[in-house]
């Protein structure tokens, strides 16, 4: 049974049925020797022993034949023998485009085993993933092999030489033949040795092999040992191709991967070695490109502890011995260019320091198979962006100083069954109708388990394939930008899951995670923690943040679980964590990483925003790194969220005893640049929906919900609301079931939707509500001490003379109160959450109140205002 599987599973249904190799062996034929040229002795080929399948047997179940003997080894090139051996990979439908051999049933061995011709069947794995919940992967054509472009009448006759070939070490030859050579290009390909040109290729089952140069010169190779063929050329061949002949099939002509120079340059290696390659995704991973005049795909991966690495996938029938990669530097970057390949799935087979072959997905893959399949996918970006105007405006705008009203959603459950592309039109229309300025997507990176909601990432550079291709995501973001809607994406650099085919113990040792579990594991989530002190790991993560800005044009990243990164003892008991170099609990390496990420992102992409989900009192989260801060632009105000939800969940009869919970946030509202979040975390795990949290009957629940949202929109700071809360979804969010859209057919829930739309309309048009979110110039108390009445009243100011009064009554009774105001005149009621159009009781001020020159509470003017029960009123001076 094969040890390798694209699906990260040993289940039988994850593998293809074994494919029967064709057991055809020809009688050896010796060509007529030219005059005065020596004639090579005829090698003897074994007669094949075949078994004829019964006509009732299913295909591929016949007894496999014995393979022919491989050609005799020789170190001197005379006239070649043309005796053929078993055919290399072939397809019955297209003999000109044969497939590579299938996998061997026995595990690959790390030590040299002199078995030049395998006698077992090589099972080919089932490459078709299980039927996914989302859109299926497109069927991909097999790559076309580059055939010799030289017309037959222009090709020269094969040349030979009697000059002695250089001696070869048998162990090194065997390592190259088995795909476990760390530097295969040093042996294979074209080389000048002692002034002569030597060409070597591996074709273990071929009967004859030759190479043809760009000028048409052809050189016949002789078999050395273990499937390695070599020969001498009169001069360097340059861009040669290899022709291998197999009994019963047409010649197989292909470019040689080992004739190409590296696709990774010295500068790239240096920058990655220093941990400063800001476009690392352009170097590592798989990339379709034209290299030295040939189209193909380059592969590059960082595996510092590996003894050998090879590419396995659709390109070679999931049998990787033909595509061993070369180690380019001491840092552990491995590279290979495979000509003629521009699509398909793949993984890396890695020989660990313990001599075990393991299979891993590409950490830098930009596309992945649909789960439960786990392989990486070769991809090319083809989207034609249309958001130039948006990007130009963004670069010239400070998002932190403007309005920011964010709609948070989960792609897979907003409208279940819709992928990135199908989501574009309905989401744009919906968010536009609500008036939000931004959407925030829960994580979009590849994650195998949908129930993690994307917070356990295995493919940091690949959008979730369940929802579509990378270009489908580009299309969605492009459409949002063209509609004037910004895009924020959740990013998870703090930890990653332990799936054996992903990042964990990538090359048999700790690579991405810290090797000490007291630093390298997160007990709360059963995940690994990145080694933030390693330069290459930091580079991987910093470049990943930049990747989402540059390749997908996102406008911001919300960094998940920052608190777990800042404290070495986070969720750990005594003895379960290691102190820092100063003996403290602060994670100095993670702090440095966050500062580097934020500073680099803001430098490279002016106008973007970096947001921290940080739940502690760590100082300076949103202060610049130049001032010793972490460098985020915004911080989620988790304290505001917890305090205010605790307050509004109480019966109005008891709120007067807890007035501090609704006002405490004003004591620290300007200590950070805050965003006020009502996120997905508040409507799951039995917490109930925002609607369910409210006390009272259904009418009172909706009234409380409307009042709470209006208070939130009036409070200093940006705001974020999770999907479903905008129409008062009665039940908590379920990733499997999605939103309960049917309740929008009920007028009372549509009225909540209408209120949120009005909140955003007034919010975006009134600069007093956002121009000074982060300094006290934009705020003044009107009355913060009316605890007995459960009333909170304050002013928001624009800094240019405009003011907006926010008057909130959280009691269950209407109240008429007098409030001091900065100017006399008519103050329009621009919002009343108790208006009948929003499902309220209609208590209000008939659209306006009149302030007179009568001082009150230290202000020069005052007005009597009717406050509705469980309602909020916004007033603006008419000018």
Q: What are the segments in which pLDDT stays under 50 over at least 5 consecutive residues?
A: 1-160
Beta-strand fraction estimate: 15-25%
Mean pLDDT: 85
How many angstroms does the end-to-end distance come to? Answer: 82 Å
How are the secondary structure elements laid out?
Elements: H1 170-177, H2 184-187, E1 189-193, E2 196-202, E3 208-212, E4 218-225, E5 228-233, E6 241-245, E7 252-255, H3 266-274, E8 285-291, E9 294-302, E10 308-313, E11 326-327, E12 333-339, E13 345-351, E14 357-360, E15 376-377, H4 388-395, E16 405-409, H5 411-414, H6 420-434, E17 438-441, E18 445-446, E19 459-463, H7 470-482, E20 486-491, E21 495-496, H8 517-520, E22 521-522, E23 527-529, H9 535-552, E24 556-559, H10 562-566, H11 588-604, E25 609-612, E26 634-636, H12 638-648, H13 659-663, E27 674-678, H14 690-693, H15 698-714, E28 718-722, H16 747-765, E29 779-783, E30 791-797, E31 803-809, E32 815-821, E33 825-832, E34 848-851, E35 861-867, E36 871-877
């Amino acid at each position: 049974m094969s040890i390798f599987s694209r699906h990260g599973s040993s289940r039988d249904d994850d593998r293809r049925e074994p494919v029967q190799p064709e057991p055809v062996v020809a009688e050896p034929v010796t060509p007529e020797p030219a005059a005065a040229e020596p004639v090579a002795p005829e090698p003897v080929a074994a007669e094949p022993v075949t078994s004829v399948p019964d006509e009732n047997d299913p295909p591929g179940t016949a007894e496999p034949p014995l393979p022919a003997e491989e050609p005799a080894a020789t170190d001197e090139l005379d006239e070649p023998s043309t005796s053929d051996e078993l055919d290399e990979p072939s397809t019955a439908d297209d003999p000109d485009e044969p497939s590579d051999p299938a996998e061997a049933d026995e595990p690959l061995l790390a030590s040299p085993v002199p078995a030049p011709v395998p006698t077992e069947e090589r099972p080919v794995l089932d490459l078709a993933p299980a039927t996914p919940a989302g859109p299926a992967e497109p069927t991909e054509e097999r790559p076309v092999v580059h055939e010799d472009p030289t017309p037959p009448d222009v090709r020269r006759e094969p040349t030979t030489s009697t000059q002695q070939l250089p001696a070869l070490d048998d162990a090194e030859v065997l390592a190259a033949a088995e795909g476990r050579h760390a530097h295969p290009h040093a042996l294979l390909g074209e080389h000048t040795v002692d002034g002569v040109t030597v060409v070597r290729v591996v074709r273990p089952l071929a009967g004859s092999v030759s190479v043809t140069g760009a000028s048409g010169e052809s050189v016949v190779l002789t078999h050395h040992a273990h499937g390695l063929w070599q020969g001498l050329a009169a001069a360097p061949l340059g861009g040669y191709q290899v022709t291998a002949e197999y009994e019963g099939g047409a010649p197989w002509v292909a470019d040689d991967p080992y004739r190409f120079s590296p696709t990774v340059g010295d500068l790239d290696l240096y920058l990655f070695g220093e941990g400063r390659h800001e476009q690392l995704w352009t170097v590592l991973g798989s990339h379709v490109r034209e290299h030295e005049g040939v189209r193909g795909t380059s592969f590059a991966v960082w595996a510092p502890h590996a003894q050998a690495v090879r590419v396995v996938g659709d390109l070679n029938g999931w049998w990787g011995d033909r595509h061993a990669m070369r180690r380019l530097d001491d840092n552990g970057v491995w590279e290979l260019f495979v000509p003629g390949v521009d699509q398909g799935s793949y993984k890396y087979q890695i020989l660990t320091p313990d001599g075990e072959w393991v299979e891993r997905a590409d950490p830098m893959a930009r596309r992945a198979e649909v789960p439960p399949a786990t392989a990486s996918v070769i991809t090319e970006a083809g989207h034609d962006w249309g958001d130039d105007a948006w990007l130009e405006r963004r670069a010239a705008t400070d998002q932190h100083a403007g309005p920011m009203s964010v709609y948070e959603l989960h792609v897979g459950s907003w409208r279940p069954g819709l992928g990135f592309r199908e989501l574009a039109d309905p989401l744009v229309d919906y968010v536009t109708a609500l008036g939000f300025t931004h959407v925030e997507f829960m994580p979009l990176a590849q994650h195998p388990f949908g129930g993690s909601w994307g917070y356990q990432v295995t493919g940091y550079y690949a959008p979730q394939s369940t929802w579509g291709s990378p270009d489908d995501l580009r299309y969605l973001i492009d459409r949002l930008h063209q509609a004037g809607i910004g895009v924020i994406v959740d990013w998870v650099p703090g930890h990653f899951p332990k799936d054996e085919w992903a990042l964990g113990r990538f090359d048999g040792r700790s690579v991405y995670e810290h090797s000490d579990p007291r630093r390298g594991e997160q007990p709360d989530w059963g995940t690994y923690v990145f080694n933030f002190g390693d330069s290459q790991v930091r580079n991987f993560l910093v470049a990943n943040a930049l990747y989402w800005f540059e390749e997908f044009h996102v406008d911001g990243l919300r960094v998940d679980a920052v608190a777990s990164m800042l404290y070495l003892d986070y969720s750990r008991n005594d003895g379960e964590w290691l102190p820092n170099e100063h003996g403290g609990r602060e994670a100095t390496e993670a702090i440095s990483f966050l500062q580097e990420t934020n500073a680099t992102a803001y430098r490279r992409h002016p106008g973007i925003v970096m947001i921290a989900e940080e739940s502690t009192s760590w100082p300076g989260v949103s202060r610049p790194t130049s001032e010793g801060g972490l460098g985020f632009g915004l911080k989620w105000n988790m304290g505001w969220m917890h305090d205010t939800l605790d307050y509004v969940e109480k019966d109005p009869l008891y709120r007067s005893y807890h007035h501090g919970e609704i006002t405490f946030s004003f004591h620290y509202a300007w200590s950070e640049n805050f965003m006020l979040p009502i996120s997905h975390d508040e409507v799951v795990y039995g917490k109930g929906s925002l609607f369910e949290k409210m006390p009272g009957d259904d009418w009172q629940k909706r009234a409380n919900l409307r009042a709470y949202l209006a208070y939130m929109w009036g409070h200093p700071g940006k705001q974020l609301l999770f999907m479903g809360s905008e129409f008062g979804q009665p039940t908590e969010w379920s990733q499997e079931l999605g939103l309960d859209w049917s309740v929008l057919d009920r007028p009372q829930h549509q009225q909540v939707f209408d209120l949120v739309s009005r909140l955003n309309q007034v919010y975006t048009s009134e600069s007093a509500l956002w121009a000074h979110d982060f300094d006290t110039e934009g705020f003044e108390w009107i009355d913060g001490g009316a605890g007995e009445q459960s009333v909170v009243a304050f002013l928001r100011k624009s800094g240019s003379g405009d003011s907006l009064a926010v008057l909130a009554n959280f009691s269950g009774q209407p109240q008429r109160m007098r409030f001091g105001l900065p100017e006399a005149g008519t103050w329009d009621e621009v919002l009343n959450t108790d208006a009948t159009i929003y499902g309220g009781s209609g208590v209000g001020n008939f659209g306006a109140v009149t302030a007179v020159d009568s001082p009150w509470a230290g202000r020069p003017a005052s007005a009597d205002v009717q406050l509705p029960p469980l309602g909020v009123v916004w007033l603006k001076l008419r000018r």
